[in-house]
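ok new one. same drill as before - structure tokens go in, u give me an amino acid for every spot. 181 of them this time. try not to just spam alanines like last time pls lmao
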């Protein structure tokens, strides 16, 4: 059938009749469901959807619900066109994205070689002199005066950032490692 007109008074009637109505209609056929009241229209949509119908809201009114059987059959399949939408992965990569990023010169990585164990060229003496110069540097100090309180109170350039709080006057933290028992 191309068109089927049915009246229903309850959702139970719709649930029981939906499968039979779907079988009697051809693909693309219309079901015109006349309902007893307006409240039943909202309740009838779910059983019709579960019964395989597509509800047409444009043609429906207060007490009339229009639905149609889909053009496709249950379990129908359609072939995919594999050649149309295939994307070439090589086109997605830009030529500038394939080069490794350049490393700035001021990264801080030392490329100087370490002196060998029996150095005679002077590289070991030069490295020892640099380490001695770093050790002779002024002791750590800060302008904030809150270094002993902890990171929450320290200034941005504080040399103690990241270290635990300590007592004023003590620059080295002494851990009291005792047993709890």
């Amino acid at each position: 059938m191309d068109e089927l007109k049915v009246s229903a008074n309850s959702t139970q009637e719709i649930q029981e009749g939906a499968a039979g109505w779907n079988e009697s209609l051809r693909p693309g056929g219309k079901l015109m469901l006349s309902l007893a009241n307006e409240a039943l229209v909202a309740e009838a949509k779910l059983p019709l959807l579960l019964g395989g119908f597509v509800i047409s809201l444009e043609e429906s009114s207060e007490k009339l619900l229009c639905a149609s059987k889909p053009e496709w059959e249950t379990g129908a399949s359609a072939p995919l066109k594999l050649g149309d939408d295939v994307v070439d992965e090589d086109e997605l990569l830009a030529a500038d994205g394939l080069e490794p990023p350049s490393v700035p010169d001021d990264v801080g990585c030392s490329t100087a070689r370490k002196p060998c164990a029996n150095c005679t060229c002077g590289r070991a003496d030069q490295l020892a002199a640099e380490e001695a110069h770093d050790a002779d540097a002024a002791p750590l100090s800060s302008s904030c005066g809150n270094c002993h309180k902890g990171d929450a109170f320290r200034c941005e350039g504080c040399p103690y950032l990241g270290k635990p709080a300590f007592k004023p006057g003590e620059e080295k933290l002494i851990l009291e490692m005792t047993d709890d028992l």
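Residues 11-24 form the longest helix (14 residues). and btw Strands lie at 3-8, 30-35, 54-56, 64-68.
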